[in-house]
Amino acid sequence: MYIAMSQFEVANDMAADVKEAFVNRPHMVDHEKGFLGMKVFTPQENENEFWVMTTWTDEISYREWYKEHMKESHQGIPKGLKLVPGSLKVRFFDLVSD
């Protein structure tokens, strides 16, 4: 299993809009080759911080999706959203134990 985890913090009081966008996402990625699932988290101590975890069967499937569909998959981002500078981070993981 391959995991892509992104983290970001909303800077302009639009956390509720971001949450709504994730809840109502169009599920475009759901039927992509190798896609296993997506979970979105916010820490209890900071509702403006988001962690997005997507799981894939393998790295190649993720890379192919990213190359072909990343731009269109972010079209649901709320207009006017601003992030805390430097808060966007993307990390990649291999599952060791489940």
UniProtKB/TrEMBL annotation:
Pfam families: ABM
Gene Ontology molecular function: monooxygenase activity
Any coiled-coil regions, as ranges: none
Protein keywords: Monooxygenase, Oxidoreductase
Xref: InterPro entries: ABM_dom, Dimeric_a/b-barrel
All copies of domain ABM, residue ranges: 2-92
Domain of life: Bacteria
Record's keyword annotation contains Oxidoreductase: yes
Protein name stated in the entry: Heme-degrading monooxygenase HmoA
Organism in which the protein naturally occurs: Pontibacter lucknowensis
